[in-house]
């Protein structure tokens, strides 16, 4: 990943902190994934300031999550189940709030694609 010009780097650091904040919220709130935000935050920090990326990766839980993703080890089976159940619940509980049928179908398809992606494309971490 190439480092952007110097004036843009602080923006990447700000984006990294916002994404990190969402990731930490995801560690606390059930049903709100944290890993994806940390992976994106690490990428943003890498573009903005590698010292912040190193700081994020040195966090006890976060560093392992990002490392597992980057190395292709994937997610534990329990986490995959949890993610899929959360997608199904989120889509099911919010479907009635979408006023038009086309939007409901699109929302359902997005949920199905999310589950399919997790089941078939995300590797299952062993051990």
From TrEMBL:
Keywords associated with the record: Membrane, Transmembrane, Transmembrane helix
Provenance organism: Deinococcus puniceus
GO CC entries: plasma membrane
Annotated protein name in UniProt: DUF454 domain-containing protein
TM region(s), chain numbering: 12-45, 79-95, 101-120
Lineage, highest ranks first: Bacteria, Thermotogati, Deinococcota, Deinococci, Deinococcales
């Amino acid at each position: 990943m190439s480092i952007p010009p110097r004036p843009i780097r602080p923006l990447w650091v700000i984006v990294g902190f916002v994404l990190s904040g969402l990731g930490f919220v995801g560690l606390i709130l059930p049903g709100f994934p944290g890993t994806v935000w940390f992976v994106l935050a690490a990428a943003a920090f890498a573009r903005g300031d590698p010292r912040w990326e190193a700081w994020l990766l040195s966090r006890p839980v976060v560093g392992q999550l990002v490392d597992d993703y980057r190395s292709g080890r994937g997610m534990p089976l329990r986490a995959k189940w949890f993610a899929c159940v959360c997608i199904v619940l989120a889509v099911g509980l919010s479907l009635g709030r979408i006023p038009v049928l086309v939007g409901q179908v699109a929302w359902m398809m997005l949920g199905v694609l999310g589950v399919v992606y997790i089941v078939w494309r995300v590797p299952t971490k062993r051990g």
